[in-house]
Amino acid sequence: MIDWSHHLIVTPILLPMMTAAILLFIDERNRTTKALVSLTATVLLLANALVLFIVESGPNSFENVYLLGNWAAPFGVVLVIDGLSAMMLLLTAVLAIAALVFSMARWHAVGAHFHTLFQLLLVGVNGALLTGDLFNLFVFFEVMLAASYGLLLHGTGTLRVKSGLHYIAVNLVAALFFLIGVSLVYGTAGTLNMADLALRMPDMEPDRLILMEAGAAVLGVAFLIKVGMWPLCFWLPSAYSAASAPVAGMFAILSKVGIYVILRLTMLLFGDGPSAGFGAEVLLLGGMATLVFGTIGVLASQALGRLAGYSVLVSSGTLLMVLGINDGVVSSGALLYLVSSTLTISAFFMLIELVERGQDAGANVLAVTMEAYGDGEEADMEDGEGTTMPGTMAILGICFAACGILLAGLPPLSGFIAKFAMLSAMMGTGSIGTTPDLAVWTLIVLVILSGVAALISMTRAGIRTFWGSIEGAVPRVLVVELVPVMLSLTLGLTVKAGPAMTYMDTTIRTLSNPSAYVDAVRNAHVVKDQSSSGTTAGEGGSAP
What we know:
By secondary structure, the chain is mainly alpha-helical. The protein has helices at residues 11-24, 31-57, 83-103, 114-130, 134-152, 158-189, 194-200, 206-227, 236-242, 245-251, 254-269, 280-300, 304-325, 328-355, 390-408, 414-429, 438-467, 479-487, 491-495, 497-511, 514-522, and strands spanning 64-68, 77-81.
């Protein structure tokens, strides 16, 4: 009989792809139908990601390989699921649910093909997380970027169009670097399969190895543009702050896809052998510069949207520094920080739209008609204006304070746990040793200062937003808008921080042993056509 559970590996790509195709045939005026189809597919995607994550976090965790077209690697397209990709798939699905539910209150109705583009974005992100070769990584990156172009321009306003055009131009340049890098790698190594590259690199001649490293460097530029490493990051705060709230919330994962690819290729191709440590100094120094630039931007930002955009750079800079250190224990804390910061920034982007709604009359063109708390009678005033709902403002204030605590890394939430894990490892509990050098102490100081800067900026913004004089319309908020923000504030990650850190430790140990990944891909078996037994060609195989 066919093991249908094995096809769960390809489902994160096929499900949103088929959903996007179906949505194209539904008239744009039937927005409720389109929203229900999109939401149902995304819920199924979350369930699928959760199953894969549970399998990888269990005692029988494995690296499973799916051979598309039933062609053995390195000749065919392969999808690989392991602890890191399973974690990223689950994180993407959680953000997708939150952003999609938030958009259903108003934003999905302000432009055409929102749900189709949203599903295509999921195709690109999930494909980039699962693919086992560089060419299809390029393909899925292009799908992801093409969908993000449309989503960034979703809505109206000259600022959004201006930022969108800058975003498109920069990412087209990144795509060009990506293509050039892939071409150099293929011309040098004769393969683009990641596992096959890991096998061939140790035996390369010195001159070919130099060309291979040059191709990897060009390829790295494309990823670093997406991550937002200084000085390739000037486009990011403006683009993210100009996007609609649910789109910006979903964009929080895009820079982390770049981090994922850099981590994957660094551990797989440059962990051992003659190219061990290739690019580590660039990541370390670039991460430090990015963290400093992001911290200054956070302090200087007066608009909440730009504050959130620079917070993305702070997160990226911190993670790039850890990749440059290349210490297993520090990296475990960094993975927890990746999850916590991504969820926090996504929630913050959506929260900003709610707390600023009443400050801008233009933002209330599509204002909803229900309050999260209170009834319609309490909302009426003699002059027809909305009235302050203490319950709603209190909830918004609590969510804002939680975002500030998470971004600053204060106890007791997951932001503190992640930063504490990283800093304690830097100061002696990791493989760095008990006497950190000047560079490591510099990193420790920068991480602490970035938290202080976030605390100052969020406190200042909170006082101005919630304690200042309120004029004009008070924001009207639907429960469907508050729930995604509240669920994204990582309470579950805080409660389950112990099991989460155990999972991160196991994931880093697996990544540190690239032979397991290589063997899984090499030993994936081609399924023979056995009509009599009900087995059909086209399935992949897992390593025995």
